[in-house]
């Protein structure tokens, strides 16, 4: 897998896919088989509803998340393959 490019962290997923499409780049667009049953789907639908009300919701949430400091003692999981 190719890691996300940092300059695109402020771009929406749709914009990144369109960029890859028009530049002729390969991109992975298949949804994970476990995604429909994942709890994050509820959070995703909430974010979509908020975004429909106020267009800058997701960008503002990302900005505030980057301002949070995470302590070194917080354990993080390593991501596995889907």
Folded structure, characterized:
It comes from Smutsornis africanus (Double-banded courser). One of its GO terms (biological process) is tRNA wobble position uridine thiolation. There is one protein chain. With 82 residues, the protein is mainly alpha-helical. The protein has a domain at 39-68. It contains three helices and no strands. The chain is globular and about 40 Å long. The protein starts with 12 loop residues before the first helix and ends in a 15-residue tail after the last helix.
How many H/I helical runs?
Answer: 3
Rounded to the nearest angstrom, the radius of gyration is: 15 Å
Into which percent range does the helicity of residues fall? 40-55%
Biggest sheet architecture: none
- H/E element sequence: HHH
Mean pLDDT: 77
Structural class: mainly alpha
- Strand segment tally: 0
What gross morphology would you assign?
globular
Low-pLDDT sequence parts = none
| Percent of residues in β-strands | under 5%
* Cα distance spanning the termini: 11 Å
Keywords: Transferase
GO biological process, one term: tRNA wobble position uridine thiolation
GO cellular component, one term: mitochondrion
GO molecular function, one term: tRNA binding
